[in-house]
Amino acid sequence: MREKVIPYGKQFITEEDIDAVVEVLKSDYLTQGPTIELFEKSFAEYVGCKYAVAVANGTAALHLSVIALGLEKGKKVITSPITFAASANCVLYAGGQVDFCDINPDTYLIDIKKIEEKLNNAEPGTYVGIIPVDLAGYPVNTEELNIIAKKNNLWILEDACHAPGGGFTDSKGSFQLCGNGVYIDAAVFSFHPVKHIATGEGGMITTNRKDIYEKLILLRTHGITKEKKLLNDYHGDWYYEMQMLGFNYRLTDIQAALGISQLKKANWSLKQRQKIAKIYREELKSIGDIRLPFVENNVLHAYHLFIILTSKRKELYNYLRQNGIFAQVHYIPIHYFPYYREKGWKKGDFPIAEAYYNECLSLPMYPSLSDDDLNYVIDKIKSFYR
Ligand SMILES: *Cc1c(COP(=O)(O)O)cnc(C)c1O
């Protein structure tokens, strides 16, 4: 066993990041200060959208977005069974019902054709929205999804937690960054340390819709506003109003400072991820029965994860683990979980997602993965199949 384990994902913190945090610690504002807005502005610029709202984590971003976009009690929202539980749970927080749709066997993303079939077979008004996930950093074709959403009067909330910097070229030849809001109503990002940009805990919502932006700003902080032009009443300069039922889902200025500093390295980090992916592809292309991730020509993959499929998944997972390499499985289908089984879901409901789950394995993928460690991982995979 090596001294140091190699995880599947990990943050990359520099002296510059540390200095940025220390500077805020010495300032007047640890939270609700000016650094939040700066982070939001630079993030909006990075993904190419009009508005960005920083929140406590990616799950809070999902929760608030679903409320802001509108979810009447009992209405349904579609998402993929192959994602982190939060992509589905947020619908339940808001009083809605989750419906799953099987995945595409090539991209492992929600199958847009199957969404269309589902909608065609449903009573009008059953569904209010779709939460597609840019799984592993592979961008959802939101242009295609948008056509179906418009036809059925549904909102789209892109779960782009895996995909800052990723995107695709649309049918008009324009490049669309994940979360840029062109074909979607809003998108969410997470700044958990395994994601592209780390702030400890943290999240962001991006949108081009002013109405959604304004609701999110209120919802993030108890539904309370002090802004004079929004007030219904005025008792004096202390006066504020609670106008809707909100939460305390704020990000701190300490985290925002780290976020700004991390964002400066985001382009470099993405290139590192793509470099690592290229090496994995070259080295593993004819090893055992390994199936490498599929990438369409019009796609810029953000490689949050590098997922391979193999019929020897469990054996490979155990072998790597014995050798200090902590690969991971993304994800256990949500409909397998006891909580969701109680809602009536069962094994067999989504055969493609289930077959994918039996074989998927996420190899170490993070910008600070050294050449030595990468070579070690590749050598161990090769020796496993030998
Ligand atoms: C990480 C993640 C989330 C939740 O983000 P947190 O910041 O951990 O709350 C939601 N969806 C996906 C796809 C994620 O990977």
| Structure classification | alpha/beta
Largest sheet, described in full? 7 strands, mixed
The shape, in one word, is globular
CATH fold category name of the largest domain: Aspartate Aminotransferase, domain 2
**Care to count the β-strands?**
14
The termini sit apart by 20 Å
Q: Mind telling me the C-alpha Rg? A: 21 Å
Count of runs of 4 or more consecutive helical residues: 13
Strand content: 5-15%
Helix proportion range: 25-40%
Number of domains: 2
- Strand-and-helix sequence, N→C? HHEHEHEHEHEEEEEHEEHHEEHHHEH
Write down the CATH class of the largest domain: Alpha Beta
Low-confidence stretches: none
CATH structural architecture of the largest domain: 3-Layer(aba) Sandwich
Spatial sequence of strands, sheet with the most strands? 1-9-8-5-4-2-3
User: What's the pLDDT, averaged over the residues?
Assistant: 97
Ligand names:
pyridoxal-5'-phosphate
CATH 4th-level superfamily of the largest domain: Type I PLP-dependent aspartate aminotransferase-like (Major domain)
